[in-house]
Design a protein that fits this description.
With 302 residues, the protein is an alpha/beta fold. The chain is 25% helix and 21% strand. Strand 9 (141-144), helix 5 and strand 10 form a beta-alpha-beta unit. The longest helix is centred in the middle third of the chain and has 17 residues, at 118-134. The chain starts with 5 loop residues before the first helix and ends with a helix.
Length: 302
């Protein structure tokens, strides 16, 4: 029977390995924690309880040894990030509690590598990898997460040739295959919140970069076909509703009325926890969830 036969394809394993962008401790408003946001420890516990082993990305220059850091004031592109970051001590403790909790890098200072010289690109990417490895994570790291999705094939080849990364992240709605990762890139599906989908509601007129990702569409994407590998990326999950302050959302009632909104910038990095976890439920038997990104990379020959 050939490797490409229908019988073999029907029983091929598929994988779902979540990625947590920025690995924030929580979201903030005026650098104060916002109630209703799922904190990083709860986020890892929620995944573990459902049989998933997520990986987080970090900007190593923003992480302090023992103190948590608010970066709400930083003038970042394309919008500010109202988040509180964990300390290295926090991250090591969570790694001890969840040994599968891996880290990947987005650089030292969240710099778009397309604006840097080749030497600066290597310094930014390799330096951040060294910091993560020095704090207890194994080399090589699973991926380099290009800030703002800015990269070229030449840059990715350069980083993979000089720094301890297995793949470079690129945003895509397509699933990964054994063949696709030979390019050196990992396709990652970014889950965005935003204005609600019900045109009869006022929340549909919120000025957001994206409309709220439909839970039905998310569930479809997170149930891959045999032989496929999906990497869903979340930012911060929220519960209930909030109608005051900078960060506002509604996760109650019908899904068409769900929205997340940042009054301080065009960010859509909040998503309802109930919709996200529901989309991860009831995976077919051929889908493997208890693997990390690094684990699937190794299984697929990286």
């Amino acid at each position: 029977m050939s490797p490409s036969s229908p019988a073999r394809a029907a029983t091929a394993r598929a994988y779902v390995t979540p990625l947590i962008a920025h690995t924030a401790w929580t979201a903030t408003d005026g650098c104060e924690p916002v109630p209703g946001v799922v904190t990083l420890p709860r986020l890892l516990e929620g995944h573990a309880r459902r049989g998933y082993h997520p990986t987080g990305t970090v900007i190593t220059g923003w992480i302090r040894p023992t103190a948590r850091t608010c970066i709400e004031h930083l003038a970042l592109k394309p919008f500010p990030k109202p988040i509180l970051l964990p300390s290295w001590r926090d991250l090591r403790r969570l790694h001890a509690e969840h040994p599968w909790f891996g880290l990947a890098s987005g650089g030292i200072r969240y710099r778009e590598l397309t604006t840097l010289t080749p030497a600066q690109q290597i310094a930014e990417a390799c330096g951040s990898a060294t910091a993560i490895i020095d704090h207890g994570w194994r080399s090589p790291l699973p991926l380099f997460a290009y800030p703002n999705n800015r990269f070229t094939t030449d840059i990715n080849d350069r980083l993979l040739g000089h720094c301890p990364y297995l793949l470079g992240r690129r945003y895509s709605g397509e699933a990964n295959t054994r063949r696709s990762i030979r390019s050196g890139f990992l396709r990652v599906y970014s889950i965005n919140g935003g204005r609600c989908r019900d045109a009869a509601l006022g929340c549909s007129r919120l000025h957001t970069r994206y409309a709220y990702t439909r839970p039905s569409e998310l569930a479809r994407r997170l149930h891959p076909a045999p032989g496929r590998w999906v990497v869903p990326q979340i930012y911060r999950l929220v519960k209930g509703s909030r109608s005051t302050g900078r960060l506002r959302w509604n996760c109650r009632g019908r899904a068409s009325g769900h929205f997340t909104y940042d009054r301080g910038g065009d960010s859509t990095e909040l998503y309802c926890a109930r919709d996200y976890y529901a989309a991860l439920a009831h995976e077919p038997g051929y889908v493997v969830t208890r693997r990390t990104i690094r684990g699937v990379e190794r299984r697929w020959g990286r």
